[in-house]
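Prompt: I keep going back and forth on a fold encoding question. Comparing notes only helps if you start from a blank page. Show me how you would write down a chain together with its backbone fold. Please set it down just below, with no commentary around it:
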Amino acid sequence: MTIRAQARVNVAAIARNVARMADAAPRSAVCAVVKADGYGHGAVAAARAALDGGASWIAVVAAEEAAELRAAGITEPPILVMGALTTAELTVALGARADVVVWTPELLDAVVAHGGGRVHVKLDTGMGRLGTRDATLATELARRAAEHPDVELVGAMTHFATADEPGDAFFGEQLARFTAWVGELRALGIRVVAHAANSAATLRDPAAHFDLVRPGVAIYGLDPFGKDPAAHGLEPALELVSWAAAVKPIAPGESAGYGRRFVATHPGWVATVPIGYGDGWRRGLTNAAHVLARGRRLPQVGTVSMDNVTLDLGPDRVLEVGDEVVLLGARGEERILAEDVARALGTINYEITCGLLPRVPRVLHADGEAR
């Protein structure tokens, strides 16, 4: 290790995951979602890898995210900004030649006032956030956009609330509402790219694919159903590594960390690893996580501090100062997934990667070769 901790991002794995999602939706184009800095993997690197893997669209949420991609030289593919935009942000998004989303007359008027642009109309079929619940209004907006000389109507979209909950009925209800609306648009001769499917919906139901799928979490090798990415042919693209900065004996009654949340009951050894919640390794993992080191699975013990965690090595000194410590990743037959860490925290896998803070640099490679 040359630095205290790093997130190693395998861009080749991202490309393969995108290809896997394309295989799952063979009649649809793929729009790779790289919002939130590529779910913590690095937006520019993720976008480039996604394009290498067969994506033909890119999606983000914020206007500045679109501007960053364009400034990095990602000039050709359409970029869809899916989020709500202030007037200033709309200027940035349209200046980046990005598509934007509208669901009210005022939003469409704002695009016109900015000189026009490419728009997608969003129907809220049940997510309950952005979009209009009124299919009649959505159709009228699509008609107005299609007829306006300064506006290019590109898409009709929605977003599923429960696609990652197999067997629920609400997913089918949303799909039926969106399918009916798209059918109405096409019956009126309004031509649009229809899109609805996130990662889970792409893997769950071909009826949700339409013209374009929008996988996000899956392209980073995270299971959209929160279990095991390998079950869907996905490869985790990020591993989080640090090192053993100190190794010392511990006697019964001695403790490690704030609040003495770990007190030794037997003679043994502990190691200190320089990573903590200041890096995005959450304090909720106190006494609740494992790491991999020297082919062993070792428990993390004591309170997660801002800058350090402690490992219980057991009765033997099985690590030395300088040894690699893997907090996310695989070594040999052992692996620690973001899904494992998420379960310990009672959250979702992509909160783990999104939560890695700027103090952890992203180091890019392609199957081990530096990029």
Summary: The domain at 238-370 is CATH 2.40.37.10 (Lyase, Ornithine Decarboxylase; Chain A, domain 1).
